[in-house]
Amino acid sequence: LDMIEPGDVAAVCGSCPSDVAKSYPAELCAKIAAKGAHCVIDCDGAALEKAVNESAVHPTYIKPNHEELAGLTGMDTSTPEGVMKAAESVAQRTGITVITTMAGDGAVITDGDGSTFIPAVRRPVVRLKGAGDTFLGAFLYAKYVKNLPNPEAVTFAQDVAGRYVAGE
Fold first, then answer.
1. Whole-angstrom Cα distance, residue 72 to residue 96?
2. Edge-first strand listing for the sheet containing 61-62
3. Residue 100: band (very low, low, confident or very high) from pLDDT cuts 50, 70, 90
4. Is 0.85 surpassed by the pTM of this model?
5. Phi-psi category of 162—alpha, beta or left, where left has phi over 0 and alpha has psi -120 to 50?
6. pLDDT in tens, 50-74
7. Quick check: 15 and 43 in contact, CB under 8 A?
8. Cβ–Cβ contacts within 10 Å for residue 54, how many?
9. Is residue 107 helix, strand or coil?
10. Which of these, 40, 124, 154, 168, is most buried using a 10 Å CB contact count?
11. pLDDT category, 131, cuts 50, 70, 90?
12. Are 63 and 99 a contacting pair, CB within 8 Å?
């Protein structure tokens, strides 16, 4: 935290170990935001729910997959339309931009202005472990280094993650 400066981006990712409170990602996000930096949260279950629904300081972005979004909202996220509706319910209530990945089907980016679905390019699957992390890293690079708008950053991230999954 001592190294974070205003305008930086910090990603809080992964599952909380059993001895870490589920509120920790939200608490860490608040400390990051207090430094004037952007916080991105990619976690699931109670940790995601606390960061979205119980924290006074929200992350700039969350990146659930469609199943995690369903768990967060209690809504059907089996289709792009369902993901859009669920993500819009979060974005409109909290101001958080929601990036929802849908495995090989694509991704949805949702902010206060609405949702954009970006379909995935079909590729052979060689590996899946790490695909979400690859996607998020590529999105943050596209957004904060290349300065691409959200939909273009998602398109870039899908391409990078798709190539990773295909072993390219």
1. 14
2. 9-13, 38-42, 61-62, 97-101, 106-111, 114-119
3. very high
4. yes
5. alpha
6. 999 888 889 999 999 999 999 999 9
7. yes
8. 11
9. strand
10. 154
11. confident
12. yes
